[in-house]
Amino acid sequence: MNSTNEPRRSTSSAAIQASLKRRYARERRFQWYGRLAVLTGFVFLFILLADIVSKGYPAFTQQYIMVEVDFDKEQLGLAADATAEQIADADYLGLIKRSLREMFPEVTSRSEKKQLYRLVSMGAEYQLRDMVMDDPGLLGQTREIWLQAHSEAGSYLKGQVAADSDQADRKVKDQQVLWLDQLRAAGRTESRFNTTFFTAGDSREPEMAGIKVALYGSFFTLLVTFFIAFPIGVSAAVYLEEFAPRNRLTDLIEININNLAAVPSIVFGLLGLAVFINFFELPRSAPLVGGIVLSLMTLPTIIITSRAAIQSVSPSIREAALGVGASKLQTVFHHVLPVAMPGILTGSIIGMAQALGESAPLLMIGMVAFIMDAPTGITDPATVLPVQIYLWADSPERGFTEKTSAAIMVLMGFLIVMNALAIYLRKRFELK
Amino acid sequence: MDSPKALNSLSSAAGENVMDTGSTQETVASEAAPRIPLDIRDHGSVGDAYETIGTPLVENAKMSARKVNVYYGDKQAITDVSLDIGRNEVIAMIGPSGCGKSTFLRTLNRMNDIIPICRVEGEFSLDGEDIYGSGQDTVLLRARVGMVFQKPNPFPKSIYENVAYGPRIHGLAHNRAEMDEIVENSLRRASLFEEVKDSLDKPGTGLSGGQQQRLCIARAIAVSPEVILMDEPCSALDPIATARIEELIDELKENYTIAIVTHSMQQAARVSQRTAYFHLGKLIEVGETKQIFTMPRHELTENYITGRFG
Ligand SMILES: Nc1ncnc2c1ncn2[C@@H]1O[C@H](COP(=O)(O)OP(=O)(O)OP(=O)(O)O)[C@@H](O)[C@H]1O
Ligand SMILES: [Mg+2]
Questions:
Q1: Helices A248-261 and A287-311, packing angle to 10 deg
Q2: Is the Cβ–Cβ distance between B109 and B93 less than 8 Å?
Q3: Among B174, B170, B167, which Cα is nearest to B187's?
Q4: Average predicted confidence (pLDDT) for chain A
Q5: For residue B29, pLDDT beyond 50
Q6: How far apart are alpha carbons A424 and A430 in whole angstroms?
Q7: Closest chain A C-alpha to B136 CA, distance in angstroms
């Protein structure tokens, strides 16, 4: 027996040895493909992020110019006993223009004056107005005041415009460059953190534009989406998985839910327009309708991931619960859902993240309006971050380019926060 | 052990449906066998119309099953089984792997209802009430007929919560102290308390296999069911824990009725009053445990208990 077995064994082990080499080589090659794929992904991600951050970070600073302002009552056309209303309506623009002219007395021609006035932001007059309204005692005094720079002047101060380039190619003219250099030399320019970006709504002037409306709009829209899509999605998943009979009808429903997940989002926008706005006459441009439309879009995602999560709960847990006399509902709510919850939450947050980044369907229902005041509820007109990004990306001004990237950074920040939340919740539920 | 050939051939046949091979051997029945069959595939068949030998029925039964057929899809797992479970008795169910012991046990508290492809025929009663009747509530039934499953399946919750869950949903404890008592008592009777008393808030799934099995026993007895169905409750236990569980079973039978599936003949002999031998979905023989183990009347029973297969 042994004599016949022995050579056989050695040949088979030789064969295995020979094949081992090939097998290991294949494994190594596969590992390299994998590494290459991961690397490629990272490179693209890095390029994308680097591009956005490098374009967007200047938007987080804002340039100021110090101007000596004489709050002259005559210039403002205010009497000694001016009412608050009169103070509010006074001509602060004129005040600024005069102050600027006094700073650069050599400027006389109309066109030069116009350029001079364009050094400070159009919003500067409101800054002055608010100061005087807060403290009417300012009237008649002279103060050194930091006024927001015009976006073009600001971008020169930020070093985004080369002074030696052709004047025709840039908006800051040579004359303005000269003035700005003088101001900088005199220490009359300053760079500060851009709070306007977070506290203002949209504006036609880049330096006055902010994402507050879009932030609030996104928040309210997601709130509506979550409170519609999560309960409905999870209940539908639980019903379909645990209670529904398996028959043609439920098969059909399942197929259609899967199909729904593949429907282009703009179709949901059209649906929202036709049904919720034209038929139910819900307010246009409002987070309420936006949220409903996005929840229709997220529902399939939540249902599909929740069903998968519920399905993956071991049947032995169900048996155990039923075995001690739990009802079907108790089994589901006490045992199946807690175990499935991490998966359900992950799916829901992915769905919500999709909704947060969605713009096309919201364009359809009018959440693209130019809105300056932040919404205070789900029925006020608003816009959302991706739409705001889309709007700004469309604007030619240099100031909006950096705002676009900055808004993308904020949006990505929120996505990171949401994903972190998903991970945190998953960890928390898994510990239990 | 003395017949390796039989063991080998059994393992190759395990899980397959091996019913329709021996048309010539079909008549091998209860009478004295001319020779001892060595291969289950040659001699396993009993014939479609068969009769259970012994005393499957008893007076004043706690549970009774009549003419039970169970199918998984097209496959029949239980064929025409009638069996009574007496009041305050321990009945052991033995038989080779895949013969339908678990399946039969699960029909007794309708656990098979949750398997979509499973179809159960027959009449079942608990204290004379129809178990599968339209008026029967499965929740109540399962509270009265508890079960320890073949595979330990603790809830992914704390040890305490595992035991407390049943009493809580049935409202058996009125306050925290009562609940603590039920939990401690159940764990003690399942001889697990000493090991886990300091870690009641740790997850039950973190226990060893044998500890999980005892936890599931504690969970089942915590709701004080009238009947306890135990599917190999000691398969993962060491001799000491096994002995304790057997003591528990002895003690429980004063007030409860117990059906236990086991692969250990010694255990069946030690704890049960009656023993039922299943073979390929059929109930071959039922009788006093002593009689089954000393004087089996059916050849298949004899082969099994003498270790010729299974
Ligand atoms: N869920 C199921 N789906 C399909 N067939 C099943 C299912 N459960 C059991 N069966 C089949 O029913 C037959 C009896 O199985 P059962 O689990 O009752 O055997 P058993 O006697 O408990 O075996 P063991 O001693 O190995 O636990 C087997 O042939 C098995 O393949
Ligand atoms: Mg079994």
A1: 120
A2: no
A3: B167
A4: 87
A5: no
A6: 10
A7: 13
DSSP secondary structure string for all residues of B136-166: --HHHHHHHEEEE-SS----SSBHHHHHHHH
ipTM over 0.90: no
Please give the single-letter amino acid code of residue B209.
G
Tell me which chain A residues have a C-beta less than 8 angstroms from the C-beta of B203: 432
What pLDDT, in 10s, does the model give residues B35-81? 344 444 444 555 667 888 888 888 888 999 999 999 999 999 999 99
**Residue B15 CA, ligand 2 centroid: distance in Å:** 12
Closest-CA residue to A414 (of A214, A270, A245, A243): A214
Q: How many CB pairs under 8 A join A and B?
A: 66
pLDDT in the model for residue B10: 38
User: How much is the CA Rg of chain A, to the nearest whole Å?
Assistant: 32
Element housing B285 (H / E): strand B282-288
pLDDT value at position B34?
40
Q: In what order do the strands lie in the sheet with A142-148?
A: A142-148, A61-70, A189-193
Interface test with A, best of B109, B112, B142 (most A CBs within 10 A): B142
**A138 inside 8 A of chain B by CB:** no
Indicate the burial class of A425 (C-beta count within 10 angstroms; 0-12, 13-18, 19 or more): middle
Whole-number average pLDDT of chain B: 83
CATH of domain A212-431: 1.10.3720.10
Instruction: Name the 3-class secondary structure at B67.
Output: strand
The Cα B231–Cα B224 span in angstroms is: 17
Taking the mean position of all CA atoms in its chain, how far away is CA A79? Answer: 47
Report H helices in B14-61: 40-43
Closest in A314, A325, A335 to B223, CB measured = A325
Token output for A169: 């190619």
CB-CB neighbors (< 8 A) of A316 in chain B: 149, 151, 153
Chain B, 217 to 236: residues with Cβ < 8 Å from chain A are 219-220, 222-223
How close B202 gets to chain A, by Cα (Å)? 9
Nearest Cα to B258, choosing from B201, B266, B268, B280? B268
Average pLDDT over residues B207-236: 92
Query: Which of these CATH numbers, 1.20.1290.10, 3.40.50.300, 3.40.605.10, 1.10.260.40, describes B2-305?
Result: 3.40.50.300
Residue A1, pLDDT score: 44
DSSP B65-122: EEEEEEEETTEEEEEEEEEEEETT-EEEEE-STTSSHHHHHHHTTTGGGGSTTEEEEE
Which pLDDT value is given to residue A175? 84
Query: How far apart, in Å, do the first and last CA atoms of chain B sit?
Result: 11
Confidence of residue A322 (pLDDT cuts 50, 70, 90): very high
Contacts of A243 in chain B (CB under 8 A): none
Contact B50, B218 (CB under 8 A): no
Pair B162, B154: CB distance under 8 Å: yes
Farthest CA pair distance, chain B = 66
Q: Classify strands B129-130 and B118-126 as parallel, antiparallel or unpaired.
A: antiparallel
Distance CA B213, CA A26 (A): 44
φ, ψ of residue A227 in degrees (nearest 5): -75, -15
Q: State residue A206 phi and psi, 5-degree precision.
A: -55, -40
Contact status of B240 with chain A (Cβ, < 8 Å): no
Domain spans of chain A, in order of start: 64-194, 212-431
In the numeric block, which tokens belong to residue A168? 């025709």
Domain boundaries, chain B: 2-305
